[in-house]
Amino acid sequence: AIFDLHYELQKTMKQDNQLGRKVKQLLTAGQVVPSDILQQIVEAFIKNVSTEKPIIFDGFPKNLAQADFFNRLISQYKRNFVAVLFNVGDDHALTRITKKKICSYCQSVYSADSIAETCEKCDNDLKLVKEDNIVGMKLRLSNYYQETAPIVSLYEKMGKLISINADEHEDDVYTTLSDRLEGFGLEKKRKSGKKS
After folding, report:
1. Most CB atoms closer than 10 Å: which of 45, 47, 76, 194?
2. Could you tell me if 67 and 57 are in contact, meaning their C-beta atoms sit under 8 angstroms apart?
Protein backbone atom coordinates (compact mmCIF):
# COMPACT_ATOMS: atom_id res chain seq x y z
CA ALA A 1 0.00 0.00 0.00
CA ILE A 2 1.19 3.54 -0.69
CA PHE A 3 0.33 6.52 1.48
CA ASP A 4 0.92 9.59 -0.67
CA LEU A 5 0.17 12.66 1.46
CA HIS A 6 -0.78 14.87 -1.51
CA TYR A 7 -3.16 12.23 -2.88
CA GLU A 8 -4.69 11.49 0.53
CA LEU A 9 -5.34 15.21 1.14
CA GLN A 10 -7.02 15.52 -2.27
CA LYS A 11 -9.12 12.44 -1.53
CA THR A 12 -10.05 13.68 1.95
CA MET A 13 -11.18 17.10 0.73
CA LYS A 14 -13.71 15.42 -1.60
CA GLN A 15 -15.41 13.64 1.30
CA ASP A 16 -18.68 15.11 2.56
CA ASN A 17 -17.82 15.03 6.25
CA GLN A 18 -16.37 17.40 8.84
CA LEU A 19 -12.76 16.41 8.16
CA GLY A 20 -13.19 16.66 4.39
CA ARG A 21 -14.77 20.11 4.61
CA LYS A 22 -12.02 21.35 6.94
CA VAL A 23 -9.23 20.09 4.65
CA LYS A 24 -10.97 21.62 1.62
CA GLN A 25 -11.28 24.96 3.41
CA LEU A 26 -7.58 24.96 4.35
CA LEU A 27 -6.28 23.89 0.95
CA THR A 28 -8.56 26.26 -0.94
CA ALA A 29 -7.28 29.14 1.21
CA GLY A 30 -3.68 28.04 0.53
CA GLN A 31 -3.09 27.31 4.20
CA VAL A 32 -0.96 24.56 5.71
CA VAL A 33 -2.92 21.58 6.99
CA PRO A 34 -2.10 21.28 10.73
CA SER A 35 -0.40 18.18 12.12
CA ASP A 36 -3.44 17.01 14.11
CA ILE A 37 -5.47 16.72 10.90
CA LEU A 38 -2.61 15.01 9.04
CA GLN A 39 -2.32 12.56 11.91
CA GLN A 40 -6.02 11.68 11.66
CA ILE A 41 -5.57 10.97 7.95
CA VAL A 42 -2.44 8.86 8.52
CA GLU A 43 -4.03 6.82 11.31
CA ALA A 44 -7.22 6.21 9.30
CA PHE A 45 -5.05 4.90 6.47
CA ILE A 46 -2.76 2.65 8.52
CA LYS A 47 -5.54 1.01 10.51
CA ASN A 48 -7.23 -0.07 7.27
CA VAL A 49 -4.15 -1.87 5.90
CA SER A 50 -3.36 -5.43 7.03
CA THR A 51 -0.21 -5.66 9.14
CA GLU A 52 0.94 -8.33 6.67
CA LYS A 53 1.02 -5.72 3.92
CA PRO A 54 3.89 -3.19 3.83
CA ILE A 55 3.15 0.53 3.47
CA ILE A 56 5.24 3.16 1.76
CA PHE A 57 4.70 6.60 3.31
CA ASP A 58 5.43 9.53 1.00
CA GLY A 59 5.26 13.04 2.44
CA PHE A 60 4.87 12.11 6.10
CA PRO A 61 6.35 12.74 8.66
CA LYS A 62 7.69 16.21 7.90
CA ASN A 63 8.82 17.41 11.33
CA LEU A 64 9.93 15.97 14.67
CA ALA A 65 6.48 16.19 16.27
CA GLN A 66 4.99 14.24 13.36
CA ALA A 67 7.88 11.76 13.55
CA ASP A 68 7.14 11.19 17.25
CA PHE A 69 3.47 10.54 16.42
CA PHE A 70 4.47 8.29 13.50
CA ASN A 71 6.88 6.23 15.62
CA ARG A 72 4.21 5.69 18.30
CA LEU A 73 1.62 4.79 15.64
CA ILE A 74 3.97 2.26 14.02
CA SER A 75 4.58 0.70 17.43
CA GLN A 76 0.85 0.67 18.27
CA TYR A 77 0.07 -1.23 15.06
CA LYS A 78 3.07 -3.56 15.62
CA ARG A 79 4.85 -2.57 12.44
CA ASN A 80 8.50 -1.96 11.69
CA PHE A 81 9.88 0.77 9.44
CA VAL A 82 12.89 2.11 7.66
CA ALA A 83 13.20 5.68 6.35
CA VAL A 84 14.60 6.31 2.88
CA LEU A 85 16.29 9.60 2.05
CA PHE A 86 16.79 10.34 -1.63
CA ASN A 87 19.68 12.81 -1.55
CA VAL A 88 19.49 15.36 -4.36
CA GLY A 89 21.46 18.61 -4.66
CA ASP A 90 19.31 21.73 -4.24
CA ASP A 91 19.79 22.92 -7.84
CA HIS A 92 18.95 19.49 -9.20
CA ALA A 93 15.89 19.30 -6.92
CA LEU A 94 14.65 22.70 -8.13
CA THR A 95 15.01 21.63 -11.76
CA ARG A 96 13.30 18.30 -11.21
CA ILE A 97 10.38 19.60 -9.22
CA THR A 98 9.61 22.83 -11.06
CA LYS A 99 9.54 21.00 -14.38
CA LYS A 100 7.72 17.82 -13.36
CA LYS A 101 4.52 17.00 -15.17
CA ILE A 102 1.41 15.30 -13.87
CA CYS A 103 -1.43 13.54 -15.67
CA SER A 104 -4.59 15.63 -15.58
CA TYR A 105 -6.67 12.48 -15.09
CA CYS A 106 -4.89 9.72 -13.16
CA GLN A 107 -2.30 11.96 -11.41
CA SER A 108 0.72 9.91 -12.63
CA VAL A 109 3.91 11.94 -12.21
CA TYR A 110 6.52 12.35 -14.96
CA SER A 111 10.06 13.58 -14.44
CA ALA A 112 11.54 16.86 -15.60
CA ASP A 113 13.40 15.19 -18.44
CA SER A 114 10.37 13.33 -19.79
CA ILE A 115 9.46 14.20 -23.39
CA ALA A 116 6.01 12.63 -23.08
CA GLU A 117 3.02 14.90 -23.70
CA THR A 118 0.35 12.34 -22.85
CA CYS A 119 0.09 9.80 -20.04
CA GLU A 120 1.29 6.27 -20.79
CA LYS A 121 -1.36 4.82 -18.46
CA CYS A 122 -4.52 6.60 -19.61
CA ASP A 123 -3.52 8.70 -22.65
CA ASN A 124 -4.68 11.99 -21.09
CA ASP A 125 -2.71 15.24 -21.29
CA LEU A 126 0.21 15.99 -19.00
CA LYS A 127 0.53 19.41 -17.36
CA LEU A 128 3.19 21.20 -15.35
CA VAL A 129 2.38 21.33 -11.64
CA LYS A 130 1.32 24.95 -11.10
CA GLU A 131 2.25 25.29 -7.44
CA ASP A 132 5.80 24.10 -8.06
CA ASN A 133 7.40 27.40 -9.07
CA ILE A 134 10.94 28.54 -8.20
CA VAL A 135 9.91 30.89 -5.35
CA GLY A 136 7.62 28.27 -3.82
CA MET A 137 10.28 25.59 -4.14
CA LYS A 138 12.96 27.73 -2.48
CA LEU A 139 10.57 28.23 0.43
CA ARG A 140 9.93 24.49 0.57
CA LEU A 141 13.68 23.81 0.60
CA SER A 142 14.12 26.27 3.45
CA ASN A 143 11.30 24.55 5.34
CA TYR A 144 12.94 21.19 4.66
CA TYR A 145 16.21 22.24 6.29
CA GLN A 146 14.42 23.75 9.31
CA GLU A 147 11.65 21.17 9.82
CA THR A 148 12.43 17.89 8.08
CA ALA A 149 16.23 17.56 8.16
CA PRO A 150 16.19 16.89 11.95
CA ILE A 151 14.15 13.73 11.26
CA VAL A 152 16.99 12.48 9.07
CA SER A 153 19.39 12.83 12.01
CA LEU A 154 16.89 11.12 14.34
CA TYR A 155 16.38 8.09 12.10
CA GLU A 156 20.10 7.88 11.38
CA LYS A 157 20.81 7.66 15.13
CA MET A 158 18.08 5.01 15.44
CA GLY A 159 19.69 2.94 12.65
CA LYS A 160 16.51 3.33 10.61
CA LEU A 161 17.83 5.39 7.68
CA ILE A 162 18.76 4.43 4.14
CA SER A 163 20.42 7.33 2.32
CA ILE A 164 20.59 7.12 -1.49
CA ASN A 165 22.35 9.44 -3.95
CA ALA A 166 19.40 10.28 -6.20
CA ASP A 167 21.47 12.44 -8.56
CA GLU A 168 22.46 9.19 -10.29
CA HIS A 169 20.57 7.54 -13.16
CA GLU A 170 17.19 6.16 -12.06
CA ASP A 171 18.24 2.54 -12.76
CA ASP A 172 21.25 2.95 -10.47
CA VAL A 173 19.07 4.56 -7.80
CA TYR A 174 16.61 1.68 -8.04
CA THR A 175 19.35 -0.97 -7.80
CA THR A 176 20.97 0.74 -4.81
CA LEU A 177 17.62 1.12 -3.04
CA SER A 178 16.69 -2.54 -3.67
CA ASP A 179 20.03 -3.74 -2.32
CA ARG A 180 19.83 -1.51 0.76
CA LEU A 181 16.23 -2.57 1.51
CA GLU A 182 17.31 -6.19 1.25
CA GLY A 183 20.03 -5.37 3.79
CA PHE A 184 17.23 -4.36 6.20
CA GLY A 185 15.56 -7.74 5.67
CA LEU A 186 12.93 -6.39 3.29
CA GLU A 187 12.16 -8.52 0.27
CA LYS A 188 13.79 -7.43 -2.98
CA LYS A 189 11.17 -6.80 -5.65
CA ARG A 190 11.69 -6.86 -9.37
CA LYS A 191 11.33 -3.53 -11.13
CA SER A 192 7.92 -3.40 -12.72
CA GLY A 193 8.39 -0.76 -15.38
CA LYS A 194 9.30 2.86 -15.27
CA LYS A 195 7.91 6.24 -16.12
CA SER A 196 9.63 8.24 -18.80
Report:
1. 45
2. no
- β-bridge mates for residue 118, sequence order: 125
The span from the first CA to the last CA of the chain, in angstroms, equals 23
pLDDT digits (tens, 9 = 90+) for 41-86: 999 999 999 988 989 999 899 999 999 999 999 999 999 999 999 9
The span from the CA of 106 to the CA of 124, in Å, is: 8
84-138: per-residue pLDDT in tens? 999 887 777 776 666 778 888 887 888 767 778 888 889 988 887 655 566 767 7
Return left, alpha or beta for 51; rule: phi > 0 is left, psi -120 to 50 is alpha, else beta. Answer: alpha
Average pLDDT over residues 143-148: 89
Peptide bond before residue 150 is cis, with ω within 30 degrees of 0:
no
Give the number of C-alpha atoms closer than 13 A to the C-alpha of residue 84, restricted to the C-beta side.
21
**DSSP codes of every residue in 156-170:** HHTT-EEEEETTS-H
**Greatest CA span in the chain, whole angstroms?**
45
